[in-house]
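Running this now, will post back.
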Amino acid sequence: MNIEDLADKVRALEPAPREQQWSSLTYCVLDAVWSISANYTSVVAPLVRRVAAQHGAPGLPATKTPGVDAADPLPLHAFLSEFPDEQSLIAVTNRQRTSTKGGITKAAAVRQHAEIFLSHGIATLGEAQSALLNPTALQSIDADLRTVPGEGASGIRRGYLWMLIGDDAAIKPDRMVMRWLATNGAGVKNPEEARDVLAQVAQTLQGQYTLWEIDHAIWRARQPSRTRAAK
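Update: finished.
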């Protein structure tokens, strides 16, 4: 595998900065949990919008990179009040589980994420973005999030959640990324190796693109043309 060749292939994807970002930490959690083994365009994005509409926030609940001071339309405490139990959330989402082998419902996993963030004094997107700048707080929150069933060994769900919140130095080495790397000559065997290879690619590109931009460019390249603008 030649990192420079791989970097050229990444450059050809024309990575670009974020155009939209969820306006609420609640939406980020919903997206991160439901995105595992679910179609983004037909399942995940509509599901997040249904939850937003249930709270009286219809339309696309996303904005261009909201700052830490931006208002969160559905803070986690309001979300838990709106959906006081697992079944009330299932009623507007679905019954998918975090794993086909004894996993809990994704609705239950979302509620657990919300409770963990709140236990750390975080209810809004801005507060979560501030945590990204505090390594000690971030490590503590991340360790607790790891305990939610369905996490898996590679931390893909957690990494993706922090990406949605605003971490531009993370990637989501899921099946799409792994397949793209395999198709383009990178013999990676697991998500950890994928992270390392793409970090080398970013370094080779001399910081021209963030890891988030590289990850998203790969995601777009793996999508049918009809759905590329959806995320």
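Residues 3-17+172-227 form one domain. More later if anyone needs it.
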